[in-house]
Amino acid sequence: MDQTIGNPVSWAVRHISASFSHVGDMARTVSGEEERELPIVNSLSLQDLRDALAQGYDDFKTFRSDLIAVCTLYPIIGICLAVMAFQGNLVHLIVPLITGFALLGPVASVGMYEMSRRREAGQETNWLAIFEVIRSPNIGAILVLAVMCFALFAAWLGAAHIIYLMTIGTWPPASMGSFLADVFGTPAGSAMMIVGMAVGFVFALVVLMISIVSFPLLLERRVGVPVAIATSLHVVSENPVPAMVWGLIVAISLTIGSIPALLGLMVVLPILGHATWHLYRKAVT
């Protein structure tokens, strides 16, 4: 029998009530009382990365119309942040805002992980599965890891602001034109870009290391944040080349998706999200 949502109010109340039923479990899931041992980590090859991307694209084709509709939120949010930066004399943070989205990619893709998980298990799946994450028994640990990613994103913006002050130093920028002239026409601007890219790489590397498989692991197993992060670190340490190539694929894909007013993220993020689930399945036993 086909399942229906019912009226929006009853649907929302039912799901919110279910999510609150897990609040008492949050402290326990953060520490992961059920499973404390690290899962077995497998060796990865570059072919595994290609296979994961192909499987991710296959999932995207299956849920394409639903995902594109849901993922319109990403460019809308990005554009709103850019407008706020313009109005708040923070034009020097527009690029860090956009590039820093990669730090939040694992959080934004949690719903895609759940859709791929349900499809793999043969369960009926549509875009509403994204909201099933809030009913996960491990929602406490998932939220804690998400907060960590947001904290890293905030720290990156703070670092970008400090780098700007230490190089160009004119704050607030007189105008967008003068800011661009400083960036591309002065030694200080060149120094800002070089230092900024180096620091941004460090932040991206940290997020890659702690989250390459941690969110999918938290969705599938009753482990806590320490085990999830340790497993991600183990995956990276055991597979440094595939992990770095994967990080490069993610960075390039998000950059390409961000160029046309962030509209490409409606396609890029779902594919990467689904592909990350399949990479997790290959990496962890």
UniProtKB/TrEMBL annotation:
Transmembrane residue ranges: 67-87, 93-113, 134-156, 193-219, 243-272
Keywords associated with the record: Membrane, Transmembrane, Transmembrane helix
Keyword Amino-acid biosynthesis: no
Pfam families (alphabetical): DUF2189
Top-level taxon: Bacteria
Protein name: DUF2189 domain-containing protein
